[in-house]
Amino acid sequence: MSDLETRADIDRLLRHFYGRAMVDEVIGYLFTDVARLDLEEHLPQIGNFWEQVLLQRPVYVGQPIAAHVPLHQAATLRSAHFQRWFEIWASSVDELFTGEIATQAKQRAAIIAESMQYRLGVASPEAGFSEAYRAALGMPAHTDERQTPDAER
Ligand code: HEM
């Protein structure tokens, strides 16, 4: 496996991701029934976004967060939707690529997912974060050990 290095790599990742996301039990309906996404029309735009983010080429014109406002208004996005979105994204990346840019693809996605939820007013409680999401955000691995307050030791 090699790293995610070219626009062709991004397009391959996006096809893999949307192939899974659009038939997913948790979030599939948001793409198909709510947004009625025309994938062939949207892939170039979404590819431009990731090409700009990951390969630093200024090819994207748009407002990625604002693009989700109508979707949120129509269907009320929740933290669980974003967790599932990220799970499919991260596993798609891991299935196809390995390396620094592949790692960045997961890190940037988690950071953007967090800011998107913040901007949309979607609560994103840490208790619902997967380990992979925590790792992508640079948070320490979660342990079940409870912190005992000093007074109770
Ligand atoms: C619950 C999670 C998400 C769902 C259900 C979702 C769904 C969608 C849908 C339906 C569209 C098309 C909107 C339209 O009709 O124009 C869209 C566009 C897009 N999404 Fe998401 N999305 C999610 C999270 C994310 C995240 C976390 C990112 C980035 C890390 C992202 C990146 C994009 C981009 C770049 C576009 C294109 C924006 C444009 O048209 O310029 N999405 N998304």
Structural descriptors:
mainly alpha, Globin-like, 7 helices, binds protoporphyrin IX containing FE, 0% strand, 153 residues
How does the SSE layout of this entry go?
Elements: H1 7-21, H2 28-34, H3 39-55, H4 69-75, H5 79-96, H6 100-120, H7 131-136
Bound molecules: protoporphyrin IX containing FE.
The site of protoporphyrin IX containing FE has 22 residues, from helix 2, helix 3, helix 5 and helix 6.
Describe the structure.
With 153 residues, the protein is mainly α. It has a single domain, classed as Orthogonal Bundle (Globin-like), CATH 1.10.490.10. The longest helix is centred in the last third of the chain and has 21 residues. The model has no long low-confidence stretch (mean pLDDT 94). Protoporphyrin IX containing FE (HEM) binds next to helix 2, helix 3, helix 5 and helix 6.
CATH homology superfamily name: Globins
Q: Estimate the global geometry from the Cα principal axes.
A: globular
- What percentage of amino acids are in beta strands? under 5%
CATH class: Mainly Alpha
Bound ligand species: protoporphyrin IX containing FE
Give the total of domains: 1
Largest sheet: none
Taking the alpha carbons of the first and last residues, their distance comes to 49 Å
Helix/strand structural class: mainly alpha
The CATH architecture name reads Orthogonal Bundle
Residue runs with pLDDT of under 50 for 5 or more positions: none
Structure summary, number of beta strands: 0
Query: Considering DSSP H and I runs of 4 or more, what fraction of the residues is helical?
Result: 55-70%
